[in-house]
Amino acid sequence: MSDKTLKFTLNGEPMEIAVSPSDMLVDVLRDRLELIGTKKGCGKGECGACTVIMDGEAVNSCLVPAMKAMGATVETIEGIGSPEKFHPVQETFMDLGAIQCGFCTPGMIMSSKALLDKTTSPTSKEIKKVLAGNICRCTGYVKIEEAVLAAAEKMREKQ
Amino acid sequence: MKDYNVIGHSVRRLDAVEKATGTAGFTSDMKLPGMLYGKVLRSPHAHARILSIDTSEAENLPGVKAVATYKNTPRELFNTSATMTFTVPPLKPVLDQYIFDNVVRYVGDEVAAVAAASEKIAEAALKLIKVEYELLPAVFDPLEAMTPEAPVIHESHKKNIPGGEVIQIPYGDAEKGFAESDLVIEKSFKVPVQKQAQMETQAAVAQVGLDGKITVWSTTQTPHPTKMILAKIFSVPESKVRVLNPPYIGGGFGVRIGLSAKAEPIAVALSMLSKRPVKVVYTRKEDFIASDTRHAGYVTVKLGAKKDGAFHGFYVKAILNGGAYCSFSCETPGVLGCMALAVYRIPNQLYYGHSVYTNTTPSGAMRGFGNPQAMYPIESVVDMMAEQLGMDPLELRLKNIMQVGDPWALPYKCSSTGLAECIEKGARSIGWEKRGKLNQPGAKKLRGIGVGVGTHCSNAWPWCGDYSNAYITVQQDGSIHLATGVPDMGTGTSTSLPQLAAEVMGVRLDQVSITFADTQSTPFDIGSHASRTLYAAGTAVVAATRDARRQVLEYAGDLLKVPPERLELQNSVIYIAGQAVGDDCAGSGVCQVGESERKSISLKELAYTAHLRNKQFIGIGRIVPENAPPWHAHFAEVEVDTELCQVRVIKIAAVHDVGKAINPMIVEGQIEGGVLMGIGYALSEEIKYDEKGKQLQDSFHKYMLATADDAPEIDIMIVESNDPTGPFGAKGVGETGLVPTAAAIANAVYDATGIRFTEIPLNEERVYQALKEISK
Predict the structure, then answer these.
(1) CB pairs below 8 Å between A and B: how many?
(2) Of B308, B336, B441, B683, which residue has the fewest beta carbons closer than 10 angstroms?
(3) Minimal Cα distance from A137: which residue of B?
(4) Considering the domain boundaries, does residue B21 fall inside one?
């Protein structure tokens, strides 16, 4: 299969790259664009480590054929905050002990951000439902849920 | 209690920014110039001899740079676990594996590997390798594997017992104890295969220089022992092998104490053959089927007690499924036995246990290391004993638990215990008084409450070699650099060890940086296992920092013209005890009497002054740890849906005597994670095999681990008994969260249903069968 040109918006910047139609988005992000913050934990959409936000929805980028991102807006962990200005959910993950080995963290944060982009008043139940697709083997999810609730509160204060 | 400046505080992890922004380095993220991708061909058979193997077509595929098999790789026997490097005579490590062999012993065993320009090409090349197998008889159950007619899995281990090692721990006279008991209860249990399922699969990147030096970035929990194993396999001096984490690992839980399955030697072999860097990252399926699991097995508990509830006789027998290769199969039954005998003060005890080779995925180390396999059965039997004696289960436990200074079977002292306090606090949190009174007659959803208690170790000494070293160098600006050989697999080492250094030195945490998990830039350390990292490596860090601090104060004493004993060092300033801090000496006592020209000097100025006089302060810590028992009590409230046959955990109260919490937030995280993994062990996690030895659970979807949606309320409480042997009183906490969880849940299920399950996990199938049985 010959390569096709994929055009999309990546972390706010226009991006154009030649990809094979069989390439998955996660591999284009990690191997081609060297955005290694997006992790690959299973390659089958079962662990959520590769979660990115595409057109406002959290998706497993290992299940998304790269060409599906044509014209889409994609956000990865690299695009949502930095030490100059962290995203509130990054802040609360760091401060409330929601990070241990860190391998699930980017995916967790992206799933959480996608939720908080839609509502800044999520219930515990909603948070658990959303994060049930992101496996973390280090924490008991307790501090992760607390961090999402605290980030929501921060975002409400700013509104 | 003493107030500390840095330890005892829940400071933000030092690796938090990197991990929250996606910039933290993991092995699976690495890319080197010219790097190739390695893929492994694995056996489809549980036991077979390779009659022929033809790699020519694979070698001719464009992009393929090397194909490795048993024919062109070292024939040096090894053990993937670090036991190869720290087994103390007279015991000998069991060496039973090659990188590739001409016999395969489980489904997933390594047959060959390919290095190619891309993963896709490497995968395509695997399909071109032609292997002819002669199938051999296979056995999957440890009890069957012990029968005379069972196939021999390793020629040098005729009875299928790895190393022939049978562990017996006698203490008093168990038979006499049972004869003198008023009540004796015996029960047998079956425990399942659990998988670590750490988020980052086994991975290694190897670069073999043309000068023969070998560098390996990998997911190992023990870089220094892994260096030793690789040097042995490839017959090179250890000084020419560098093993490091880059610097993070996506979890461990025991699965890579030693090699990361075989990722490191396969990557090195391919790199030697191709003369290019090679990256090997296991797929999730490979990680499930071809990387160590927890030992499954059969555990029998016999407990004798006097009428008043005093335990008097105790026997535990464990036959564990070791899988196809030894790994930690000699050590696990030993630790199982030691932990089994350590919780209760019983004058007459006997433990008997060993592993058995079978044609299943090798069993190795997993969080708890035999202890959960012991405590689910033991705590079940203790509850049965309480019921038969008509005693409250807590009262029975409080009457029998080990106390400080009690004699016991372990090779170190019971130096501290806060278990009674753990039990009391947990009982309050769960509402113990509700036990047995939660259900209305005829209810379809039954609630129950249960308890499980236990202990663990804080390192592996004296069962195995265990020592730590650390360097502290005071930089020329007075900031502190710490070098330690342990990794940070998520447990917070790279934060809590600097906390210890900052506290001892008398500087702020932001003045300390750490280099870790690199054999070339850190001194030898056994690594992260056995709940040892903070306790043992932390003891070395404290020793190294004290050494550096002593040098600093001696040097400052010369400058300030006072004996060093009179100097303090706080907040990076050295000052004369009792005097106000400040450069200006006017008005201070020491200046008036003319004994000093200054009353203080900053560490920054001192370090630079020393530098200009050609001196650096370098502290060295070299320690052999003692050992100490952490204690814990878990209380579970469960709901059993008798129609859906589902067990749901409503709440876990987990109370842990950790000695001293150096970073309470990290300690809580360790316990919470352990609790959730314990819930999985109790209710859903299990790898089973079909009749041909194929693993039925080889992915996250099939292997049911607990997700956020399954997480119950978890109430963590920390008890600090300030152990006399640990750094600032700390003991191990990495494994304990998992140890008594299944026990507490199984006892809660009994409280809810009256069914005493002797096999876990308590999944729908088992609950359905049991409910059907009692309704007959």
Answers:
(1) 174
(2) B441
(3) B198
(4) no
The per-residue pLDDT for range B675-701, each reduced to its tens digit, is 999 999 999 999 999 999 999 999 999
Domains identified in chain A, total number: 2
Per-residue pLDDT tens digits for B227-257: 999 999 999 999 999 999 999 999 999 999 9
Of chain A residues 5-64, which have a CB less than 8 A from chain B? 30, 34-44, 46-47, 49
DSSP state string for B590-614: HHHTTS-S-SEEEHHHHHHHHHHTT
- Out of B248, B284, B709, closest to residue A42 by CB: B284
CB contact under 8 A, A138 and B19: no
Give me the residue from B10, B12, B672 closest to A140, CB to CB.
B672
Are B130 and B237 contained in the same domain?
yes
- Contact call for A93 and B489, based on CB within 8 A: no
ipTM: 0.98
Task: Give pLDDT, residue B592.
Answer: 55
With 80 as the cut, is the pLDDT of residue B587 above it?
no
Residue B525's domain is classified under what CATH number? 3.30.365.10
DSSP annotation string for B490-523: SSSHHHHHHHHHHHHHT--GGGEEEEESBTTTS-
A9: containing domain: 4-79
Distance (Å, whole) CA B255 – CA B618: 35
The CATH number that applies at residue A151 is 1.10.150.120
B389 and B486 part of one domain: no
Strand order in the sheet with B480-484: B512-516, B480-484, B468-474, B618-623
Given A47, A94, A102, which is nearest B24 (Cβ)?
A102
Span B498-520, pLDDT tens digits: 999 999 999 999 999 999 999 99
Is residue B488 a part of any domain in this protein?
A: yes
Give residues with Cβ within 8 angstroms of B456, minimum separation 6: B339, B368, B371, B531, B629, B630, B732, B735, B736, B739
Considering only residues 58 to 117 of chain A, which have any Cβ-Cβ distance to chain B shorter than 8 Å? 76-78, 81-83, 86, 90, 93-97, 99-106, 109
